[in-house]
Amino acid sequence: MPSKETGQLRIVDSRTENAYLIPIHDNFIRAKDLMAITSPDPKDGEITQKLTILDNGFENVACMESEITLIDGNRGQIQYRGHPIEDLFHNNDYEDVLHLLMWNKLPTPAEKLDVRRKFAAAMVPTKAVVDTIAAFPRNSDTYPMCLAGICAFMAGDKVIANNRHTHKPSFHNNLEQADAAIIRTIAYYATTLALIHCHKRKLTFTNPDPNGSLIGNLLLMMGKTNKETGVGPDPEIEACLEKLWICYADHEMTNSTAGLLHAGSTLTDPGSCAIAALVCGFGPLHGGAIDLAYEALGKIKHPSYVPAYIEMVKSKKARLFGYGHRIYRTRDPRLSLIEDLIEKNREKCDANPLLRVAFAIDKLANEDEYFVSRKLKANADLLGCFLYSALGFETDMITAIITLSRIPGGLAHWRETLDKPIKIWRPRQIYTGDRTEDADTPKRQSLSSNEGPLKEKHGIQVREVNSGKNNKVPLKVKAVLWAKSCFS
């Protein structure tokens, strides 16, 4: 829904005494409108400077208009395409939500099955992909293995590979091709995670079920099968993740989503966009904080040491990763949903030694005035990790699996841009370094001694070379012929 002008911001520039009226649209202004505010360059009065906004960390800058996810941090609300997350959590599964985010509707049974089969068809790895993962030592870090696996898949994807060798956009205004590539990209990452898990643990990789769900096939490929029958994915784990992943399906303009869209603005493919998101998502201040939180839990070892650790945090001698969120001024609505899942799996949670430490930290953090006054609570990503541990997932795979639950939401944002005007993201900067004054700078010769001026021919700028020789075909004619042969 297009934004509407709801008022005007009246600005008086004290430098020039000029007044400006800047349109307000649904409680935001467009940064480009501020470019109307100009002032003379202090070094050259004939040059004007346009006003620029500086916002390190993008704390109060919106980079997109989107119809996908609403987060109201003041009221503690999340909606996907206008549906409250609580309703979706109680009445739908992750596949429904993926379809809603991507295609703006809840799927019919036939549509759901169609997407399942397309996922499964793309989940069968080639020998090159299997060999790529197998080339890593079994104790390698998961993160670089994820990148290598996706790249190996992309190398064999003709549409994705060809995108960098065509002058016509492959996906912009071509949603059918984009949708197929999105499905393959998600399938590639799911299969990569399964291959990594199997390689690290010397397990046999199982090909996907053509009619299985995305989560069910991930578990099947990883070897997490039904404990009673040994056939198909573990139903308890699948049921839990179908709900948990709804909480992670999208979270508006996160750092990783912004990274994905930044890459996407260059007209690159969805696989490359997903890689950009993963690079951001594994950073220590983003999804990578989960790994650091688990490392800290491992060092604490026992709940009896938790009070001493909390005192270290308060005195800034240690850091409590996974607590706090800059978007919410009240309780994150996902927390109560995840807590419901924890209660349903309470016996498994209490049996995990690492989680006993985690819950002891959470109990103290919820009672201590230091944390209460700062509204520092376990964020949804960390709380959800407790479930992964309780369900038997090893810590080296948890961050990677969480990113899989988020990638479809990020790609839904990418898809949303494909029918909008093409605009590459290129932020400004404020230069603060030393500067040589123009008056002290000798004029530089702009052309070398054998170059003539630029001239325009058929819309192409050509520079003549003064070689002193009579060429049979003038250089400017060669340039025109070359350009026509390459780009026409």
Percent strand: 5-15%
Q: Number of helical runs?
A: 20
Largest sheet: 3 strands, antiparallel
Order of helices and strands: EEEEEEEHHHHHHHHHHHHHHHHHHHEEH
**What ranges have pLDDT less than 50 throughout 5 or more consecutive residues?**
443-451, 457-468
The separation of the N and C termini measures 38 Å
Strand arrangement across the biggest beta sheet = 5-6-7
Q: How many DSSP-defined strands?
A: 9
Shape: globular
Percent helix = 40-55%
Q: Structural class of the helices, strands and pairings?
A: mainly alpha
Whole-number radius of gyration?
27 Å
Rounded mean pLDDT is 88
Family: Belongs to the citrate synthase family.
Organism: Triangularia verruculosa
Keywords: Transferase
Pfam family, one: Citrate_synt
Task: Indicate the topology.
Blueprint (H helix, E strand, L loop, with lengths): L4 E8 L6 E7 L12 E4 L2 E7 L18 E4 L4 E4 L2 E2 H7 L2 H10 L5 H14 L4 H8 L7 H14 L2 H5 L12 H27 L12 H9 L12 H14 L6 H10 L5 H12 L7 H12 L5 H9 L18 H12 L1 H5 L2 H15 L1 H5 L6 H11 L4 H22 L34 E7 L2 E6 L9 H13 L1
Antiparallel strand pairs: 1-2, 3-4, 5-6, 6-7, 8-9
Helix pairs in contact: 1-9, 2-9, 2-19, 3-7, 4-5, 4-7, 5-7, 5-11, 7-8, 7-19, 9-14, 10-11, 10-19, 11-19, 12-16, 14-18, 18-19
